[in-house]
Design goal:
homodimer; about 450 residues; alpha+beta; Uridine Diphospho-n-acetylenolpyruvylglucosamine Reductase, domain 2; Uridine Diphospho-n-acetylenolpyruvylglucosamine Reductase, domain 3; Alpha-Beta Plaits; 4 domains; 5-stranded antiparallel beta sheet; globular; flavoprotein (chains A, B); FAD-bd_oxidored_4_C (chains A, B); oxidoreductase (chains A, B); transit peptide (chains A, B); FAD-linked_Oxase-like_C (chains A, B)
Chain lengths: ~450, ~450
C-alpha cells in the first residue's frame, strides 16, 4: 500500500494525510462494543475534487475506502476491518446555502446536525432528524438515521432531496434535484441514503428543512408498567393525534437520567412527548392525549411549556446512552435496534424484558415507540466470561422476534458489520438483488468492503 | 414468438391468453398522444406464481414483458413498442388485508385507488395518493404517482412499505417489511417504486394508510392573475400552514369545468384548497389563510364544509383532463409535468403561458402548486400540420426551463417513452449508474424495454 501514500501526497497537503498512531487509533473504532481495527492511512480532503482523486487512486490500487464522519455509529460501520484509506470528512464542514423560500439547505458532509440547527435558527427554520448523537449529516445520510422526531417529520431518507456522490470509479454524480418531488429516473437518492458508504462517498447534501412550529409543548407521563405506556402510545396514534415526539424511557433508564443529570423524575416507565402546531389545535390535541393516557393508568403527567425546561427534557433523553456509559466505566455499549409493526410493539418489549432477565443482563429499554422502534441498551463487561456472548444471543433473539412479526433488524442504526448476519433472514431472495446492485456499482468492491451485505 | 404461446397456454387457462384483435388494440395505447403499437399477446394472470411462470418463459425466449394496470399513463409506459407479452393485472385485484392498528393495507396490483378507498372507509381509514385518473395501485407504484394530496401526505414512494416483485429472472422478492422505518439493506422499496416495470413486475403492495381526519374543509379562492394565485400559495407554505391540498386551475380550465360539469364557478385563476385537522386548529389555519389570500388580492373565497359539496369540488378538479378531452373530440392529450423549486414556480408558470401564446397553442395550466408541480394541458389536432411538433417543442422548452432552475422533467407522470430524451440533461453522469442498475437486475433487457432509460 506504500505506493498509494506517494500518490495521495502528490495532490494532498502533507497535513491532509496521516499515518500518525493517534489518528489511526481514533479511526479504528466507533461508539459500540465492536472490535477495533486501524486504517492504513487517514486522509482529510477539503473538497469534492480531492475526494474524487482519492477514490480514483484507491480504485487504481484496489485499496478499500472507508468514509468517516464523527465515528458515532453503533454497528461498526466505520471500522476498517480490511484496512485501507479512511476518508475523514471533518474539513468538509461548510453550510453552503440556506434557501429559505424552498425550505432547503445545502451542506458538506462534515457539518453536524447541531451546527446546522444553530445556523437555521437564524432563519426561523430547523432540521428535523434528531438521533441521540451529534452526528455529521453525511454519516446520518449514509446510515439513514432517524430519532425522536421521525414519528411526525420522517427519517433521514425523507429529508434528502439530492446528494453529490463520488462513485467507486471516481465519477461525480447528483442523485436528485431541488424540486419537492420527481418521478424521473431510478430513485438513486433513496438508494444512496442508507448505503453506508458501500456505493460511493457523499460529498454534498441538499436537505429539506422545516419552519420552527408556531407553538410547541413537551410533557412527561409516567405509568405503572411499560405495557401501559406502550398501549397509551398505540391509542394516541390510533386517535390520529399528530404527535411530534413520543419516547419511552423505562424505570432503569429514568434512574440513570436522575443520577447523571441530578433530576428528580419519578422512577417509573415514562413517556416523553412533544406537540407542534398552532396553539388552539395543539391544546385540543393535548386535552385528547390527557384523556387517553389517563385511560391507560397514567400516574402523573407533567407539562413543560417553557423553552429551557423543554430543552432540558430532551437533553436528558438524548444523553441517555452517555449516562449509561458514564455510569458504567470500563464497559462497552451494545444497543439493540429492532423496529416492529405498532400492533406488535407491546409484545416485543415484554419479550425483550423477559429475555434480559433470563440472560441476567442489566439493561434499559427505551426508544422511539411512535415508530415501533425500541432499543435495549446494555453495558457489557468484556472481561466477564460469557457476558458478550449472552448479550449477542439476546440481540439475536430480539432480532428474530422482530423479523417474525414483520419487522426489521435495524430501525435506524443501520447494518454495518453488526447486522450483516441477519440480512438473509430479513430480506431472503432480495439480498441477491442487493448483491447485483453492489457488484454493478462497485465491481472492485473497494467501497467500505464487508459492510451491509456479504458478497 | 409462436413457441412462447404454446408455453404460456401450458400453465394458463386459454381465457388467460389472448391474441384477439380487440385485446391487442386495447393494450396498444395509453391516455396520451403517444403513437400506438400492439403487443404480440396479452396474458391475464390470477396469482403471483403465474406471473413468475410468465416471466420465466419470457426470459427463456428473450421476449419483452410489459406490465399493464389500466392504461391511464400519460408517457407511453405501457405501449409495447418492441412487441412482446403484455401482462394485464386486472384479475389480480384482491384487497388482501387491512391492518387497522398498523395503518397498513395489503393489496394486489390490479386494485384501483377508488376501490381501495371504498373498502378503507368502512375502517375509518383512507389511502392518500390521489392522481386524477382512477389508476391501479400497481401502476401508481410503478410510476411513483402523486396528485392533489402529496403536499401534506407525500407521494406514492412515501406510502409503499413493501412490494412483492417478480424479478426479470423470475425470482419472487419482497422489498420491505411492515415496520414504520428500517435502515436494513439497500432501499429496494424506493428503487422499485418509479421503476416503471423495467426492473420486474409488482405482484403485491403493502401500503400506508391514514385515519380519516377529524375535520376537513375545502375552499375555492379566485384571483385576478395566475401570479397572484401562485404567490398566495408560496405565502401559505411559508407560513407553515399544513394545508392538505392546494391546486391551481387557470381561467381556461375553469371554463372547461363550468361547461363539462354545468357549474358557475367564477372564470378566473382559482385555487382549490383543503384543510385537515382538528376543528379548533383548522379554524385557526383557515383564518390565517384568509388573511394571506386577501393580501394577494383574492377576489372571492368560497368555503365548502358539507361533504357532498367537497366531493363535487374535487370531482371537478379530477375530471379536468376528461373535461378537456370531452370538449375537444378527435384531438389527443399532451400534458407537461415539470416540478420546480417553489421559489421558481411563479416564473415557470409565467414562462409556460408566454410560450403557449408564442406557439399559438390552446391549453390550460393547472397543477399541484403546493409541490411546485404544474401541468400545461394541450389538446392536439394530430391532423393539423405542425401542431404536434410545436407542442413537442413547447414541452421541451418547459422541461429545459425547469431543469435549469433545479427542477425535474416529470413531477409525477414518470418517464415512460416521452421523457427518455431528457434523462441525460436532467441526471447527467448519474444516468450511467442507472444503466448499471438496469443491466445488473435485467441483463437480458426484457422488462419493459426502451422505457425510462436508453441502454
Amino acid at each position: 500500500m506504500g505506493a498509494v501514500i506517494e500518490e495521495l501526497t502528490s495532490f494532498l497537503h502533507p497535513d491532509q494525510v496521516s499515518q500518525n498512531e493517534t489518528a489511526l487509533d481514533q479511526h479504528s473504532h466507533d461508539e459500540s462494543y465492536h472490535s477495533v481495527f486501524p486504517p492504513f492511512v487517514v486522509v482529510y480532503p477539503n473538497k469534492t475534487t480531492e475526494v474524487q482523486a482519492i477514490v480514483k487512486a484507491a480504485c487504481q490500487h484496489s485499496i478499500p475506502i472507508i468514509p468517516y464522519g464523527l465515528g458515532t455509529s453503533l454497528e461498526g460501520h466505520v471500522i476498517p476491518y480490511d484496512s485501507g484509506i479512511t476518508i475523514d470528512f471533518s474539513l468538509m464542514d461548510t453550510i453552503i446555502e440556506v434557501r429559505n423560500e424552498d425550505f432547503l439547505v445545502k451542506v458538506q458532509p462534515g457539518v453536524t446536525r447541531s451546527r446546522l440547527n444553530k445556523e437555521l435558527k437564524k432563519h426561523g427554520l430547523f432540521f428535523s432528524v434528531d438521533p441521540g448523537a451529534d452526528a455529521t449529516l453525511g454519516g446520518m445520510a449514509a446510515t439513514n438515521a432517524s430519532g425522536t422526531t421521525s414519528v411526525k417529520y420522517g427519517i433521514m431518507r425523507d429529508q434528502v432531496r439530492s446528494l453529490e456522490v463520488v462513485t467507486p470509479s471516481g465519477e461525480i454524480i447528483h442523485t436528485g434535484n431541488l424540486a419537492q418531488k420527481s418521478s424521473s429516473g431510478y430513485n438513486l437518492n433513496g438508494l444512496y441514503v442508507g448505503s453506508e458508504g458501500t456505493l460511493g462517498c457523499i460529498t454534498e447534501l441538499t436537505l429539506k428543512v422545516y419552519g420552527i412550529p408556531e407553538y410547541s409543548m413537551a410533557a412527561r407521563a409516567s405509568f405503572p408498567t411499560i405495557t401501559d405506556a406502550v398501549d397509551a402510545v398505540v391509542s394516541i396514534l390510533q386517535a390520529g393525534i399528530p404527535i411530534a415526539r413520543v419516547e419511552l424511557v423505562d424505570e432503569e433508564s429514568i434512574r440513570q437520567v436522575n443520577s447523571f443529570h441530578h433530576r428528580t423524575y419519578r422512577e417509573k416507565p415514562t413517556l416523553f412527548l412533544e406537540f407542534h402546531g398552532n396553539e388552539p389545535g395543539l391544546r385540543h390535541d393535548i386535552d385528547f392525549t390527557k384523556e387517553i393516557v389517563s385511560d391507560h393508568l397514567c400516574e402523573e403527567m407533567y407539562f413543560e411549556e417553557d423553552h429551557t425546561a423543554m430543552v432540558q427534557l430532551w437533553e436528558a433523553r438524548h444523553n441517555l446512552a452517555y449516562a449509561y456509559v458514564h455510569g458504567n466505566p470500563g464497559r462497552k455499549l451494545m444497543v439493540t435496534d429492532v423496529c416492529v409493526p405498532i400492533s406488535s410493539l407491546a409484545g416485543a418489549i415484554q419479550h425483550a424484558r423477559e429475555r434480559l432477565n433470563f440472560h441476567q443482563l442489566n439493561g434499559g429499554i427505551l426508544g422511539h415507540v411512535g415508530d415501533g422502534n425500541y432499543h435495549a441498551l446494555l453495558m457489557i463487561d468484556m472481561e466477564k466470561e460469557g457476558e458478550l456472548s449472552r448479550a449477542e444471543l439476546f440481540n439475536e433473539e430480539i432480532v428474530t422476534y422482530a423479523i417474525n412479526c414483520g419487522g426489521t433488524c435495524t430501525g435506524e442504526h443501520g447494518v454495518g458489520k453488526g447486522k450483516m448476519k441477519y440480512q438473509e433472514l430479513e430480506h431472503g431472495e432480495a439480498t441477491q438483488v442487493m448483491r447485483q446492485i453492489k457488484k454493478a456499482i462497485d465491481p472492485k468492491g473497494i467501497m467500505n468492503p464487508n459492510k451491509l451485505i456479504t458478497m
